[in-house]
Amino acid sequence: MKFSTLSLLSLATAAAAIDINVDDQASIKAAASDVAKKLRALYPTGESWFVAGEFGKLPPPPSGKDIGYYWWEGGAAMGAWIDYWAITGDDTYNDIVTTAMLSNVGPENDYQPPRVFASLGNDDQAFWGIAAMSAAERGFPDPPKDKPQWLALAQAVFNRQASRWDTEHCGGGLRWQVMQANNGYNYKNSISNGLFFQIGARLARYTGNTTYVEWAEKVWDWTKHSGLLTSDFKIYDGFSIQDCVVSGQGKIMWSYNAGTYLAGAAYMYDYYTLTGNPANASDWKNITQSLLQATDEPFFNRNDGLPNIMRESGCESQPPNFSNAATCNTDQRSFKAYLSRFFAYTYQLCPFTRDFIMTRLRASAVAAAKSCTGSPGGDTCGLSWLMQKYDGSTYGIAQGGVGEHLAAMELFQNLLIQQVKTPNTQQTGTSKGNPSAGSGDSALTAADLRQTGPTTAGDRAGASILTIVCICLLGAFTWFLVVD
Ligand SMILES: *[C@@H]1O[C@H](CO)[C@@H](O)[C@H](O)[C@H]1NC(C)=O
Ligand SMILES: *[C@@H]1O[C@H](CO)[C@@H](O)[C@H](O)[C@H]1NC(C)=O
Ligand SMILES: *[C@@H]1O[C@H](CO)[C@@H](O)[C@H](O)[C@H]1NC(C)=O
Ligand SMILES: *[C@@H]1O[C@H](CO)[C@@H](O)[C@H](O)[C@H]1NC(C)=O
């Protein structure tokens, strides 16, 4: 009885589970495609989720649960699917990607749509901006001629953000939030500045325009001097402009911050290589290598018998005592997606990083596949890859799963990065740019800044809740350390 139940169970699991062989292309593609489908299935109302800025408008969370998606994660998903197409050749999602990418641009074609403007963060806008940049670099099908073009959209985001560079506090840097009424307006953080740095580096490499490289170097220098970058090349989260010093919860390290700066440095290295400037290329090679090595602890190797497996150590539970993985909030559940993506970008541009990166992506994928064994379907992915079994993360339209499946999808697909064409520059790409996109006076900015605050309580809650969650998380994390 016991035996037959067991074998029935394992048969049932075998049929659905993601059974990845990291040495076999077809198996990797099948895994990526399976998870992409899971991700898509989270939007049962169909493509309306992706149009007119609707992506991210999930039903109100069940009480006590921190589920409900911010707008930025839609941009992150589009970036993931653009790479998915470039890597696997599967164009199943291209139509919804194009629709979403174009319906969220806002009236000024700069990814500042009115619906989200009241709660806009520089990082939110930048996630859509880097998706547009990827579309240009990957040769994703160009939009119709009467619509904004990928490269011009990335330039618009860059120009808007450059105009918000704030030299009045802490010697420079972007603030996190755009609107004064939001809590995060007084916070300068790594994700906002790191993405701005990365967009600058990517535009420099794509267009050859030196204005972008000067900006990228300025952001990098500021990051170094602000204390966000440590002397051993780790990236802290941020600090308040009241004291301009990283302290307390600001010291928490997130994998996407590390990945964002890493890929930016990789683009800088390649920019200087392509422009025949070996001395500067060599500086950026050193920086890229240092940033890469600095990801190892805390994101891959912590002497816990689980070598090279990616973990979001700021919120996932750690061995030896795994509890369920519930302390990561909705945003944080997706961060490993971007570390995987940015590892792959770095892999393409910097041959000297390849062994380090592939060792870790492969070990992580083997572990992650074992986490993708939950219900429904027997192929629902958990959050923790360290546990090497499904950790009980919930899945469903009002429950969650976007972050978990984004992360698994980007991890699996990027195992195939070695077969993908190097990102386009304007010599090889077709996307039309516009260096002055997004640099005019924004009617939206002027009008909305006159408002006293964000339009809805939910929007207003966003920024402050995130801060509170960070504080609680740091508490939980510290507790783990102490108890350990
Ligand atoms: C290149 O390196 C030199 C020497 O370190 C430095 O002065 C310069 O600012 C760097 N950037 C460019 C664009 O040449
Ligand atoms: C970067 O350069 C410094 C100084 O030249 C050197 O000490 C360090 O080992 C280099 N780092 C890497 C990762 O190559
Ligand atoms: C380079 O970029 C800057 C900043 O967007 C822009 O003002 C300038 O016109 C661009 N130059 C060229 C030659 O495209
Ligand atoms: C882990 O669990 C064991 C057994 O329940 C317990 O003795 C130990 O104190 C726990 N360690 C931590 C760090 O929680």
Q: Could you write a compact summary of the structure shown?
A:
51% of the residues lie in helices and 1% in strands.
Keywords:
51% helix; disordered N terminus; binds 2-acetamido-2-deoxy-beta-D-glucopyranose; 484 residues; Glycosyltransferase
Count the DSSP helices. 17
Q: How do the helices and strands follow one another from N- to C-terminus?
A: HHHHHHHEHHEHHHHHHHH
CATH architecture classification name? Alpha/alpha barrel
Instruction: Outline the low-pLDDT stretches.
Output: 1-15, 46-53, 55-64, 449-484
Q: State the distance separating the first and last CA atoms.
A: 41 Å
> What Rg is obtained from the alpha carbons, in whole angstroms?
21 Å
Strand order of the largest sheet: 1-2
Q: How is the CATH topology named?
A: Glycosyltransferase
User: Bound small molecules, which ones?
Assistant: 2-acetamido-2-deoxy-beta-D-glucopyranose
Question: What's the number of structural domains?
Answer: 1
CATH top-level class? Mainly Alpha
Note the beta-strand portion: under 5%
State the helicity in percent bands.
40-55%
Q: How many beta-strand elements?
A: 2
The helix-and-strand class reads mainly alpha
Task: Give the overall pLDDT as a whole number.
Answer: 86
Shape descriptor: globular
Subcellular location: Endomembrane system
Transmembrane segments: 461-483
Catalytic activity: Random hydrolysis of (1->6)-alpha-D-mannosidic linkages in unbranched (1->6)-mannans
Pfam families: Glyco_hydro_76
